[in-house]
Specification:
It is built from 17 helices and 13 strands. The strands form 4 sheets. Strands 5-8-1-9 form a 4-stranded mixed beta sheet. Strands 10-11-12-13 form a 4-stranded antiparallel beta sheet. Helix 8 packs parallel to helix 11. The longest helix is centred in the middle third of the chain and has 31 residues. The chain binds zinc ion. Zinc ion binds next to loops.
């Protein structure tokens, strides 16, 4: 277990591009406020593993990753959830038996056939196999709500009305299908079965690389019968908007009690994820893969519930967003039970996997290959940035000047020892925290003098220059549309 793992950015796309390449955002090019194009010339982990005889599979509950998963030469097979699977969980696409070279988004499932026969709204301008075909019911709910950044509610309060219906229907579906289980329905429940079917078709001695994204811990949080028992508690729960746009607009401000409830529901989703990880490990055991598999569990970013005045994930340089879990289980459990306190990063995941597979590491990777017994020395500190996703462009005219100002700031981050330095990219403002004595980042040490503080600021300033140098590209319009349809 790596107790001090850092992501490279507080949102999905840059962090995943780093997992797939082992490069920082300013190296692979996927950054908010800059280009959101994945540089196809940067080699990906599945492509680098292919010469070692590996086949690859990606299963994602988050549909915004499709442009990465569909990248030519990347994964041999992939399936990604439709955007509505995050919320409309009673519509359950079936598991797929992915044949080799299938790059399906679920296009063969009955649900998606039904969906595509009826509705083709929001079709992003992407290759044919990536066309977004939302369910008509979902489209209706989405129009009623303000889930899409550019869609205005048709009637005042429609946001909460649709949320009542969504959460209520999920609860009813859970009650009918699983009467003894109070947990919310999982997001993209076809992942475990599809993995098992895919593995079962392959000889147990054929090496494979599999990427799985589970989305259960992502807002909006569905209620459940234990945290939100009975009608009175549910009536309180559905008054919580969970709409980040309304929060930024100042139209919704959660009370302490509401924050407490959201945190509790978030923790419930972590327990759901825990069970799902157990199910995935069982699949590997049943198919004879577990003992010889390198199993890495991590997250693209964290989630804020009021810390530093932030909600869910936005462009935050603070630890609730940038600190992520990282667990590595080496084949045969080598070196198991160790807790490592050295700073590590998502840039270390790709070299760790490549080295374990005996593949050549591309020159100049910024991360280190972790191993079961030691933490290799790093030539540069762990780095990161805090950028943001582009949705704010659609409704910035509805936000206060102060909020727009806050959301326009990006930051460069560096970790040296227990010290974390943050440098603002626009104003150059500085913050510094001793994460050992001040894990909640309440006491800004910028101005204090120590070798670690100096080294951290120097690294953060270098990162700031590299980010500025890498910026200036454009946002892929198809990707922007996909982000919109997912409510980013
Ligand atoms: Zn994410």
């Amino acid at each position: 277990m790596y107790a001090r793992a850092a992501t490279v950015a507080p949102w999905t796309l840059p962090a995943h591009a780093t997992l797939f390449t082992g490069r920082y955002p300013w190296e692979h090019g996927v950054m908010g406020d800059g280009q959101l194009r994945f540089d196809a010339s940067v080699p990906t982990v599945p492509a680098l593993l292919r010469p070692q005889g590996y086949t690859s599979l990606a299963l994602s509950a988050n549909g915004t990753l499709v442009p990465f998963l569909a990248q030519e030469g990347a994964f041999d097979a992939y399936r990604s959830a439709e955007w509505w699977e995050k919320t409309f969980r009673w519509l359950r696409p079936e598991e797929l038996d992915l044949s080799p070279r299938t790059r399906s988004r679920g296009g063969r499932s009955t649900m998606s056939l039904l969906v595509s026969a009826v509705a083709r709204r929001h079709s992003p301008r992407l290759p044919t196999d990536l066309i977004q075909t939302p369910h008509p019911t979902a489209t209706l709910f989405q129009r009623l709500s303000s889930g899409l950044p550019e869609v205005r509610p048709i009637v005042p309060g429609a946001d909460s009305i649709s949320w009542v219906a969504i959460d209520g229907l999920n609860r009813i579906a859970r009650g009918i299908g699983f009467p003894d289980d109070p947990r919310p329905l999982p997001a993209a429940p076809w992942i475990e079965g599809t993995l098992e079917a895919w593995l079962a078709r392959r000889p147990a001695d054929q090496p494979f690389h599999c990427f799985i994204n589970l989305l259960d811990a992502h807002e909006k949080y569905l209620s459940d019968g234990e945290v939100v028992p009975g009608l009175a508690a549910w009536l309180r729960f559905i008054r919580i908007s969970q709409n980040q746009r309304r929060w930024l607009q100042g139209e919704w401000s959660p009370s302490d009690e509401e924050f407490r409830l959201l945190r509790e529901l978030y923790e419930r989703t972590i327990r759901i994820l825990d069970r799902r990880l157990g199910a995935i490990m069982d699949v590997l055991r049943r198919t004879g893969r577990w003992e010889n598999t390198l199993f890495v569990v991590t997250s693209d970013h964290g989630q804020a519930f009021g810390e530093h005045g932030e909600l869910f994930h936005e462009r935050s340089p603070y630890q609730p967003l940038l600190h992520v879990p990282l667990w590595v289980r080496w084949p045969r459990g080598d070196g198991g039970g160790r807790t490592v306190r050295d700073a590590v990063s998502l840039v270390d995941v790709a070299p760790t996997m490549l080295a374990a597979a005996g593949a050549d590491l591309p020159p100049g990777l910024p991360g280190v290959a972790l191993d079961p017994y030691t933490t290799p020395p790093r030539s540069t500190p762990v780095l990161g940035m805090a950028d943001g996703f582009p949705c704010i462009l659609h409704y910035r005219h509805t936000l206060s000047a102060a909020v727009v100002e806050r959301l326009q700031h990006s930051y460069a981050v560096a970790y040296v020892g227990g010290v974390k330095a943050v440098v603002g990219l626009r104003g150059g403002e500085t913050q510094c925290f001793d994460l050992d004595s001040d894990p909640n980042e309440q006491h800004n040490l910028a101005g204090a003098v120590s070798p670690d503080i100096e080294a951290a600021f120097q690294a953060a300033r270098t990162v700031a220059h590299r980010i500025e140098a890498a910026r200036g590209g454009t946002v892929d319009p198809a990707l922007e549309e996909r982000l919109d349809s997912w409510g980013y």
